[in-house]
Write a structure and sequence with these properties.
Elements: H1 2-30, E1 32-38, E2 41-47, H2 53-59, E3 69-71, E4 82-87, E5 90-96, E6 99-105, H3 110-116, E7 126-128, E8 139-144, E9 146-157, E10 161-170, E11 174-178, E12 183-194, E13 197-210, E14 215-222, E15 224-227, E16 230-245, E17 262-264, E18 275-278, E19 282-288, E20 297-301, H4 305-311, E21 314-321
């Protein structure tokens, strides 16, 4: 009897152990492995019975903010090898129309962030922010409002000169036969404004409203004239402002003692040493210079102060002789 009972006990214990192992195996087999990615951590866990994503997060003490995102959704049923991803919302600053707004959002496009802040984007508006497809924490986004205006502007078209020979006029002298008149060009311009300030201008189209009319200028061609019984052959003639001076005790720029028939000139206009004929004065030589003698001016030597005063300042025709 004792031997029989011993055998039965051994079988019973073995059966119980087998059952225990079987139940343990079934317990682990029924559990579903689940991964949670949240706050930079990866949590591995197992679920025995079917539950929702919300249940798993609560079981693992993971709290969600109002704007946080969860994938899959909170009411999704947990399946084997489910991966739950928690994306935390962060602050983003949006500036537009002189107003600054802070929003909390998960990674979205800059356009979406602007919309979440309550701003509308125009077709031409520009979003100024750092590079990246999606916004990130503490990012600042500026909306630059872009508007355009089309205007018309008239601009003068300068007239040109048309030159014709005049055989009745001395070489070097000119006269206007016909006055010139500017034309008018009308430009259509697109002005682009950034946040209300002008940024650039582009000419969209241009048209000539009025053609310019050239000025007709007669160019003297005579190189010889008669004065009394004398014939003057010259290189050119000029109208010049003539003043007068008398002896001051100093020599001329060419080292000569001033005397009647000497003239002070601007060497850039009339070279020193040139022979001249000056109407109202007579023959002269360019032999002196002066600080006040610039351009088409000439200073004529006279014997006395009274002669200088009588001469005054006048316009004369000056011939530069050959």
């Amino acid at each position: 009897m004792d031997l029989a009972w011993s055998r039965k006990g051994t079988i019973l214990i073995a059966s119980l152990l087998t059952l225990g192992i079987l139940l343990t195996s079934m317990f682990f087999a029924l559990q579903k492995p689940v991964t949670i990615a949240a706050d930079g951590k990866l949590i591995q866990t197992r679920v025995l019975f079917s539950g929702t994503v919300k249940d798993i997060l609560q079981k693992n003490n993971i709290e969600l903010g109002k704007m946080d995102q969860v994938q899959p959704s909170l009411d999704s049923k947990v399946k084997k090898h489910t991966k739950i991803v928690v994306t935390r919302a962060f602050q983003v600053k949006v500036v537009a129309d002189g107003t600054e707004k802070s929003i909390y959002t998960t990674p979205v496009t800059a356009e979406k962030a602007v919309s979440l802040a309550g701003f509308q984007l125009g077709d031409k508006d520009i979003i100024k922010t750092r590079a990246g497809n999606l916004v990130s924490t503490n990012q600042e986004i500026e909306v630059i409002r872009v508007t355009e205006q089309i205007v018309s502007e008239d601009q003068p078209i300068p007239y040109g000169d048309e030159r014709v020979d005049d055989p009745t006029l001395e070489r070097g002298l000119t006269r206007t036969v016909k006055a010139g008149k500017n034309g008018i060009a009308r430009n259509t311009i697109k002005i682009t404004f950034y946040n209300g300030e002008e940024g650039k201008r582009e000419i969209v189209s241009a048209e000539t409203v009025q053609e310019p009319q050239n000025r007709v200028v007669a160019m003297g061609s005579i190189t010889s004239v008669s004065r009394g019984s004398e014939r003057l052959d010259f290189r050119e003639a000029r109208y010049m402002q003539a003043s007068a001076y008398t002896y001051t005790g100093f020599r001329t720029a060419t080292g000569l003692t001033p005397s009647v028939g000497m003239a002070a000139v601007d060497p850039r206009v009339i070279p020193l040493g040139s022979r001249l004929y000056i109407e109202g004065y007579g023959y002269a030589r360019a032999a002196d210079t002066g600080g006040a003698i610039k351009g088409n001016t000439v200073d004529l030597f006279m014997e006395s102060y009274s002669q200088c005063m009588n001469w005054g300042r006048r316009t004369v025709k000056v011939y530069v002789l050959n």
